[in-house]
Each structure stands twice: as structure tokens, then as C-alpha cells.
Amino acid sequence: MRGVVFTGGREVETLNFPDPTPGPDEVVLEMKASGMCGSDLKFYRAPKGGAANLGFPMSADPIIAGHEPCGVVLAAGSAVNPRLAPMGGRVMVHHYKGCTTCGHCRSGWQQLCQEVPIKVYGVNDHGGHATYIKVPANTLVHLPDSLSFATGAAISCGTGTAYGALRRMNITGNDTIAIFGQGPVGLSATQLAVAMGARVIALDVSAERLARAREFGADAVVNPAESDAIAAIRDLTHGHFADLTLDTSSASSARIAAIRSTKVWGTMCFVGEGGDVTIDVSPDLLRRQLRVIGSWTFSTVIQEECARFVADRGIDVDALFTHRWTLDQAEQAYKLFDTQTTGKGVFLS
Q1: CA-angle at 20, arms to 306 and 300, nearest 5°
Q2: Of 224, 238, 286, 346, which is most buried, counting CB atoms within 10 Å of its CB?
Q3: One domain, residues 92 and 31
Q4: Residues 282 and 323 both lie in one domain
Q5: Domain that holds residue 92
Q6: Pairwise CA distance, residues 202 & 193, whole Å
Q7: Number of domains in the chain
């Protein structure tokens, strides 16, 4: 089979790999859609001979990229319950593997496993930018029939991450939320928050991304490169600031602006990977009773819940995708995605 590999220095190759065969508890999926996620760029941009490091043990062998896999069940191991993985079943993949037996793993949070070094598909084990993918059966999440494979790929990381963060923030229709960064995760958050009834203020330095946020239902847009983001949010909220703020950008300036534009007793959430922020604890946090949380992706239960939410409300997640590619176009696809000015890309087969 063919698989896309990041070789360092903003270069990719499409290599040949043996077709996978499932072990007793594993399944092989025929890939239908594999999304491109902003965190892929850390590996795409890693220097040649080096490696991006997100805190996971890395393999010295070529690893197939892509951690938003969605496809159909092609083969299953002898111990796999056919109800979980019916032949031809439409499924997403929860792209982590832990020990599988601890409390985190059994509750669907394998990425939080403290017992073994976790596997992340597309990072330190083969991912979805390929013809096939082999994964444990317990990572499969049903894809509703009304949703496209591309939507399933988005829910498998970017859109699911946005949903998980909004869920943790307990967003309601009474809230105003400011969303910093309108890349794929930020746009997903805008789209979902609108569907949840909230008033959305979208922020980004890209005019194209702000225009898309408007199309997705944002009530107001702010370009921090052109105006003071904190002052703009204060003005848009009658001096009270936002009930909730969400940073998807990982930019230090956006993160501190998100904190400082959250109202007293409000909640601020980080989802963007990497980067740092310097906080003046007393005025920024203590004296405003601020709640600051981090939200890392989601569980299998929340992934399934997100898919149902999208299906039941007819949310057009496919609209996130501005570019659709084949595996043979991987080099062109990542060169464009690396500019971080466009929408989301996906590999389809």
C-alpha cells in the first residue's frame, strides 16, 4: 500500500508499505478520508534528521502521517466483536492507544493513560494518509450514515477537539464566546458554538479566515493585527468582556489577550498545542476569579456524541474543507496548508 511520510524540512514522500494484517484484537480499515490537522505541521516542519516532539516516544522508522482517519472495515481479527466492527461498517478512529485496561483507557481516554507510553496514530504509529490503516478495534467510533467520510475525518480530531472544549466550558445559549484563531479547529468551534446558540466573536489575523468565520455564523469578527483585540471585545460586550474565551492559535499574544478579555468569573480554555504564555497571576487570574482550563482532544464517548450532534442538527462540517486531495498530491497539499491562510484539507479515496 502507499503512505505519506514527513521526511523533514517541509518535505513529504509517498512510500510503499506492506498491506496490514489484523491481529486478534485489531481491524484493518480501507481509508476513505484522512484529514489534515494543524498539529501535523509540527512534524512537517521538523528539520531533516531531527524530529518534532510533542512528548511521545518517536519511532526511527518511517511513520505514515495523518491522525484523522475515517473509512470502512475491511478485515477484523478473530477476537473482534462483529457488532463493533461489522464488515463494511463506516467508522472513525480515536487516534490513540494506551494500556487499554486502566481507568482512563476503559473510559475512552486512552491518550491520558499513565501506565504505558501512548501510541498516537500518524505520529509514532502509522496513520491515515494511506490506502489502509490497522488499529485496535476499541478505537473505532461509528460514523452516522448521514455524515460524509470527510466530516468523519474532521470529527476524528479538529472538529471533535472544538466540540470537546466547548463541552468542558459548559457553553450555553446565554453566553458570548471569543474564539482566538480561525483555522480548522477555530472555525469548527465557531460553527459548533453558533449551533449551540452562543454569540460568537471570531478573531484571526487572516482576512480570508475571518470571512469564513462570518459565513459560519460569527456575530462579529476582529483582526488583532489591525485593532486592539481586548478593547474590541470589551466594546462588543458593553464593557463586561466575554463569558468564555477559547484559544486555538497557540500564539502567546493571542493567549494572553484571551485571558484578559474574559469577564470576571468567566472561563478561558486552551486547545492550541505548543507555545507558551506569561500570566500576571494577581490581576489576570486571582482578582477576577478566572477559571483557566486545558482541553486535549476528547474521549471515544465524546467523539460519538459530537458525531450525533452534527448529524442531528444538520451542521455542514464539509464546509470546513476548502481543498480535497489525493495521496499523490501530498506535497502540494502540505505546501499550501503550511501557509495557514486557507481552510482545511483532506485526502480522499
Answers
A1: 15
A2: 346
A3: yes
A4: no
A5: 2-157+298-348
A6: 11
A7: 2
